[in-house]
Write a structure and sequence with these properties.
Elements (H helix, E strand, L loop, with lengths): L8 E4 L2 E4 L3 E2 L5 H14 L3 E3 L7 H11 L6 E6 L6 H15 L4 E6 L8 H13 L3 E7 L3 H10 L4 E7 L7 H9 L3 E5 L11 H10 L3 H10 L4 E2 L6 H8 L8 H8 L19
Parallel strand pairs: 3-4, 4-5, 5-6, 6-7, 7-8, 8-9, 9-10
Antiparallel strand pairs: 1-2
The structure holds NADP nicotinamide-adenine-dinucleotide phosphate.
Length: 277
């Protein structure tokens, strides 16, 4: 369960997006700050938060406390009910105040909102980029149809589509469309909310490589060039979740893990979700 933690990146038009980051949903307060600070200390260079998580202040504090702010990509996401241009602009400035950072490295639309024209939202995000409030922009929970709409709606490069992605959910269609649009795929819930641990197939493959089931699960994604943002509240698991670059899964193992996909594999589904592919 140990091994090299040296970082790898996905290159999107010269922007280096770390292949491993830390998810922070449900982390809060001092515990959140401590985990973020420690993650950066051991090599994480990407931290994922959102307006919805209510923890931007704690995340920002951890980033600043690390002393490595300039090396870290901080992602936050705009709530779907704040996507109209003026509100989006206000909400991003509020995020910056909570984070107490000079700039947001990557700003995402958290969930699509059919009541707000996409071109207006993306236009407002592009303006914030040009005015120096954010460095890069992208989307989350976008389907094939929404990706096609987004590409037509802006000339600004979109860096990524952050989507649910793990062995129990076949996301081939949306991954292909994301890549066709020149964007990186970022996997959320990449260890299926912890259920990779205890999976018989992942455990067995892990034994062959001297790795845990969670590491095999994360390696399966990163080996496909999919970035991952596993969350943990436990300092001792931070190292485990980033030690993914000192082993390689065989083609047969990659196929076997892909075979774990099932019809009911989706975990994150809300009343406001788009019609999934
Ligand atoms: N864009 C979106 O709509 C969206 C939606 C969902 C999530 N996200 C982002 O993606 C991040 C990750 O997704 P997630 O939080 O849903 O789920 P996840 O990262 O797949 O799983 C987190 C769970 O796995 C456990 N865990 C972590 N490392 C482990 C290990 N090595 N072995 C066994 N269990 C382990 C954690 O428990 P412990 O704390 O006990 O370690 C936690 O219960 C979120 O935190 C958030 O930043 C984005």
């Amino acid at each position: 369960m140990t091994g090299s933690t040296s970082q790898s990146f996905v290159d999107i038009r010269g922007f280096k997006l770390p292949l491993v980051g830390l998810g922070t949903w449900q982390l809060s307060g001092r515990d959140c700050t401590r985990v973020v600070q420690q993650a950066i200390k051991i090599g994480y260079r990407s931290i994922d938060t959102a307006q919805m998580y209510g923890n931007e202040a704690a995340v920002g504090e951890g980033v600043r406390a690390s002393g490595l702010r300039s090396e870290v990509m901080v992602t936050t996401k705009v709530q779907p009910e704040r996507l109209a241009p003026h509100d989006l602009e206000r909400s991003v400035k509020e995020s910056l105040v909570r984070l107490r950072l000079d700039v947001i490295d990557l700003l995402l639309i958290h969930w699509p909102n059919p009541r707000v024209p996409l071109a207006e939202t993306l236009g407002a995000m592009a303006n914030l980029k040009h005015d120096g409030f954010v460095k890069q922009i992208g989307v989350s929970n976008f389907t094939v149809a929404l990706i096609e709409q987004a590409v037509k709606a802006t000339t600004e490069p979109l860096i990524c589509n952050q989507i649910e992605c793990h062995p129990y959910l076949n996301q081939d269609k949306v991954i292909a469309a994301t890549r066709k649009a020149g964007m990186a795929v970022v996997a959320y819930s990449p260890i299926a909310r912890g259920s990779a641990k205890g999976d018989a197939v992942l455990e067995r493959i892990g034994k062959v490589h001297g790795k845990s089931a969670a590491q095999v699960c994360l390696r399966w994604l990163t080996q496909q060039g999919v970035a991952v943002i596993p969350r943990t509240s436990k300092i001792e698991r931070l190292e485990e979740n980033i030690a993914l670059f000192d082993f390689e899964l065989t083609d047969a193992e990659m196929k076997e893990i892909a075979g774990l996909a099932r019809r009911d594999g989706r975990i994150v589904d809300w009343s406001w979700s788009p019609k999934w592919d």
